[in-house]
Fold:
Amino acid sequence: MRGGGFATEDLARTALSRLLAGLRIGVNADPNQTVAEYLTDWLAAKKLRQKPTTWVRYRDYVIKDLIPALGAARLDDLAYEHLPAYARGQLASGRGRSTLWRILATLSSALGEAKRTHRLPANVARPTVIPRPHSEERVIRTVA
Structure:
């Protein structure tokens, strides 16, 4: 792991101590961490808290969709501008709006966690790239 570009030695020492403190408690604050690495760690933590069916859906979206598309980027470099391009590509390939919205909601959940734990300054998946799809009106069935 390497880091550089600090204006002063004190800033470099502060960054090193922050990194080491995070590693001691299991938080990866590596500035070179990729989106794939972060999502994999987030998914492992989610397995402890989510219902199995929810976790499987998250896992599928992360492994089959998000990591292949965005995984190589550094987490700190991920920007809102990456997401509309991803969404356009998915829609052009025939992906449904509801599925795409759920994939982006999964990403937003992961990045929201990164923001809450002070790993990222902001959740770049908010505001949403596409609005939540409207569900069809439900028909109430009666005996009559």
Notes: The longest helix spans residues 97-116. Helices lie at 9-24, 35-49, 52-70, 82-92, 97-116. The radius of gyration is 19 Å. The domain at 31-132 is CATH 1.10.150.130 (DNA polymerase; domain 1).
